[in-house]
TrEMBL record:
Keywords for this protein: Cell cycle, Cell division, Coiled coil, Membrane, Transmembrane, Transmembrane helix
Region (Disordered): 1-24
Presence of keyword Transmembrane: yes
Transmembrane segments: 34-53
Top-rank lineage group of the source organism: Bacteria
One BP term from GO: cell division
Coiled coil regions, renumbered to chain: 66-93
Organism: Staphylococcus equorum
Name the record gives this protein: Cell division protein DivIC
Length: 132
């Protein structure tokens, strides 16, 4: 069943063989070009994906830092408000007199201040409860 096929050595068959060889070479060149451009495209996709992931992580880190800064800013604003209130109180003469009487036991002329034994401990316990 197996027969050997022999080529006829005429110009037509040799021209057809040349055409087939050229088509094979073109296919090889096209495959090489497609492989090359496909590889370049794949590398670009990988690079862009890596950049996207790093940018996303950077955005997450920046958002967390921004939130932390906003909390610090809010604390500073609250502290500023408290300091302004304290400044207003310190400009009020009646408040200064009250602090001087309570904390430093100062009195007006002719007044006598009596210190009771249980008063100081009660004030300390009240102030420590308020601080918490």
């Amino acid at each position: 069943m197996s027969k050997k096929v022999e080529n006829i050595g005429n110009t037509f068959t040799s021209a057809e063989n040349k055409k087939k060889q050229q088509q094979k070479m073109r296919r090889r060149v096209v495959r090489k070009r497609i492989t090359l451009f496909g590889g370049i495209l794949l590398i670009l996709i990988i690079i862009l994906t890596v950049m996207l992931v790093t940018q996303k992580q950077s955005n997450i880190d920046d958002a967390a830092e921004r939130q932390e800064k906003e909390q610090q800013y809010q604390k500073q604003q609250d502290e500023e408000l408290a300091l302004k209130e304290q400044l207003n109180n310190l400009n009020d003469k009646s408040y200064i007199e009250k602090v001087a009487r309570d904390d430093y036991y100062l009195s007006n002329d002719g007044e006598v201040i009596f210190k009771l034994p249980g008063e100081k401990s009660e004030e300390k316990s009240k102030s420590s409860k308020e601080d918490k």
